[in-house]
Design brief:
Blueprint (H helix, E strand, L loop, with lengths): L1 E5 L4 E5 L8 E3 L14 E4 L4 E8 L3 E4 L9 E4 L8 E7 L6 E3 L17 H10 L1
Length: 128
């Protein structure tokens, strides 16, 4: 079984609190410097536009090609593209535990479990 975790936005459900036609998003409820916004995708949900953040202050963020009207809803993503894969896991065929895909061997078994006996692994799963 494979699980994929996609970037659905680090900040969602917030709105612009500035004027009409602003080039910088303004939200006094968010500290963009804390979120390291530069290089992340900023989407104006209301106007269906988006761009990568090129500058920010504590309460404003500017993204190329995006303007803002008072009340526009926005999403600030964790990555530079919408729905980017943040991480994925797959289940080890020997243990049944989930690991990042790059940690599993070509046979789908994590090296930690490769040399273990199947009976031992089944017993460990039952105890948890």
């Amino acid at each position: 079984m494979k699980e994929v975790y996609k970037d659905e936005g680090g900040i969602t459900g917030r709105t612009h609190s500035g004027g009409v036609g602003d080039v910088a998003l303004q939200d006094f409820g968010v500290h963009f410097d804390v979120h390291y916004a530069i290089g992340r995708l900023l989407e104006n949900v209301t106007q269906d536009t988006s761009g990568v953040v090129t500058a920010h202050t504590r309460h404003t963020a500017t993204a190329t090609g995006v303007t803002w009207d008072d009340g526009d809803e926005y999403v600030l993503y964790l990555e530079a593209t919408k729905n980017a894969v943040i991480s994925s896991t797959e289940v080890c065929r020997m243990s049944g535990f989930a690991y990042p895909r790059d940690e599993l061997g070509p046979d789908g078994i994590h090296p930690r479990h490769a040399d273990r006996d199947r009976k031992v692994m089944d017993g460990e799963r039952r105890r948890k």
